């Protein structure tokens, strides 16, 4: 029982390329035999390179350190996983993934826009109170390499300082038995208001809360749809 989530509204400028083709992969169910699952959406996220010259360097390819659970109005977190696949060679020159190992054992932290001189992309929120002395692990990856991680893992990416694109496929999966929560009165309430504003502008839809967004985006890939 697996649900696939695309992270942003379908017509949003945030998600630049959305393929409505069928993509086949494998789903593992504990120690049981690996089975085929069908994923009807695949998101291709393109991050623009820095331009050479004196006016280069908006650095909008940076993604501040964050936890994916900040964007999700459903729980429990242990039943959610991200599959992040590199479509190019990734290293520190083009801003590979950077993670804080072990932080998936913690709790959801408050997020907000970082106070960066060159700004940051819309909805690219970051953690405000992580330990600055913690050692980041930079994930050097080759094309096709995939990393799976927990939604509480603190991670981000640096700026792309090359003349090429940094391309990756980022997908999130959750057990169909997960349940939605009301984010009002939590650290996610501000995010909900911003997401609804973006969604209404791009889709002209009358959405009431963050739950509506994710119910609209979710697609069943295996088993039966229960709560999500």
From TrEMBL:
<dbReference type="Pfam" id="PF05721">
    <property type="entry name" value="PhyH"/>
</dbReference>
<dbReference type="GO" id="GO:0001561">
    <property type="term" value="P:fatty acid alpha-oxidation"/>
</dbReference>
<dbReference type="GO" id="GO:0048244">
    <property type="term" value="F:phytanoyl-CoA dioxygenase activity"/>
</dbReference>
<comment type="similarity">
    <text>Belongs to the PhyH family.</text>
</comment>
<dbReference type="InterPro" id="IPR008775">
    <property type="entry name" value="Phytyl_CoA_dOase-like"/>
</dbReference>
<dbReference type="InterPro" id="IPR047128">
    <property type="entry name" value="PhyH"/>
</dbReference>
<protein>
    <recommendedName>
        <fullName>phytanoyl-CoA dioxygenase</fullName>
        <ecNumber>1.14.11.18</ecNumber>
    </recommendedName>
</protein>
């Amino acid at each position: 029982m697996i649900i696939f989530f695309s992270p942003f509204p379908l017509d949003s400028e945030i998600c630049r390329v959305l393929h409505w083709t069928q993509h086949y992969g494998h789903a593992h169910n504990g120690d049981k035999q690996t089975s085929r699952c069908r994923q009807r959406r695949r998101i291709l996220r393109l991050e623009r390179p820095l331009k050479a010259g004196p006016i280069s360097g908006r650095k909008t390819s940076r993604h501040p350190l964050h936890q994916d659970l900040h964007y999700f109005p459903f729980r429990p977190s242990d039943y959610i996983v991200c599959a992040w696949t590199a479509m190019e060679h990734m290293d520190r020159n083009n801003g590979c993934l950077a993670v804080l190992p072990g932080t998936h054992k913690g709790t959801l932290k408050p997020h907000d826009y970082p106070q960066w001189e060159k700004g940051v992309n819309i909805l690219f929120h970051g953690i405000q109170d992580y330990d600055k002395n913690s050692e980041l692990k930079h994930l050097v990856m080759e094309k096709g390499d995939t990393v799976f991680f927990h939604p509480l893992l603190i991670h981000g990416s640096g700026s792309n300082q090359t003349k090429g694109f940094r391309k990756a496929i980022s997908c999130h999966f959750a057990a169909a038995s997960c349940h939605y929560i009301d984010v009002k009165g939590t650290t996610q309430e501000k995010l909900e208001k911003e997401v609804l504003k973006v969604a209404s502008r791009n889709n002209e839809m009358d959405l009431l809360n963050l739950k509506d967004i994710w119910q609209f985006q979710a697609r069943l890939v295996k088993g039966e749809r229960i709560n999500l």
